[in-house]
Amino acid sequence: MASPQELQVQHKREVETKQESTVPARVFLPVTDIFETEQALTVILEMPGVARESLDVSVENDILTIAGRIDFSKYEGLQPVYTEYNIGNYSRSFQISSTIDQSGISATIADGVMTLVLPKAEKAKPRKIKVN
Amino acid sequence: MFPNFNDPFSALFTLQRALDARRASDWLGDRTTGSGAYPPINIFQQGDDFVAVVELPGVERNDLAIEAKESTIRISGKKTIAYASGASVHRRERVSGTFDRTIAVPIRIDPDAIRAEYSDGVLALFIPRAERDKPRTIKIT
Q: Is the pTM of this model over 0.95?
């Protein structure tokens, strides 16, 4: 591991879709890490301000969709005087392959970071072949 | 004009526009190193008092330190990311490391009465304005 580096600001990317949404509010792409082990694919998304009950994870036609809503009622009565970032709901989708055991997907969230574990289907797990 | 929250569909959009309108405003003056430092901070006024909101996803409560003195507030800590051993990385967008940011607010504050809340990766600092700094109503006699 490299020595700890100083953190840099990452500007939020907006979701770009072919269709325009009917609601004019902007939606942001959560910053995401994806890594794979022999057993599973792990997807980690940063969604600061999203509580557990405001999360939506679904799989349809091999598309994994994650949506998180922020509770902006907390901002009621607050008048911005100086800002450096914007806030909004989050949404991101990924194409997943059929090697994922879709019924075994599990999700946890802590400190605004969601971890999704997508276990691999039995047939997709690597097998050692013995040479006789 | 302050956002109107009566209509839930336009409320978020109105809030987003209000936030954009104050993007890097000169409220902090030149006392603070300009925007671009981590973590990004939004500052709001609530009556006489102020609220600073900071997004720190993935930072554990115990890795976060907040200090205040006179009109200066310091937020420092570290963010760690652990990958499972033997994992092959497909996509790496998250960043980790240390941060240390100091902001100086252009008002007199009551540093002993600052309250901090941290939930869902968002830090909110409730900063009360010093009693002697509050505007006085002058009665015409």
A: no
Chain segment B4-24, per-residue pLDDT in tens? 555 666 788 889 999 998 887
State which residue of chain A sits closest to B84, comparing Cα positions: A37
Strand ranges, E, within B18-114:
41-46, 49-55, 64-69, 72-79, 88-92, 97-104
Question: Which of these ranges, A10-24, A50-64, A65-79, B39-53, has the smallest mean pLDDT?
Answer: A10-24
User: Interface pTM (ipTM) of the complex?
Assistant: 0.84
Residue B90 is nearest to which of A34, A79, A81, comparing CB atoms?
Answer: A34
d(CA A67, CA A54): 8
- Token reading at A52: 């557990």
Q: Do A85 and B55 touch (CB under 8 A)?
A: yes
* Residue written as token pair 């679904």: A58
DSSP category for residue B133: G
Q: Do A46 and B16 touch (CB under 8 A)?
A: no
Express each pLDDT in B80-95 by its tens digit: 998 777 888 898 999 9
Which candidate, A54, A112, A78, A14, places its Cα nearest to that of B53?
Answer: A78
Are B91 and A51 within 8 A, CB to CB? no
Tell me whether residues B19 and A72 touch, CB distance under 8 A: no
- The pLDDT value given to residue B29: 72
Q: Which residues contact B40 (CB under 8 A, 6 or more apart)?
A: A9, A84, A85, B54, B55
Q: Which two tokens stand for residue B38?
A: 């981590």
Which DSSP state fits B13?
Answer: H
3-state secondary structure A15-29: CCCCCCCCCCCCEEE
A contact test, residue of B12, B32, B51 with most A CBs within 10 A:
B12
d(CA A90, CA A49): 10
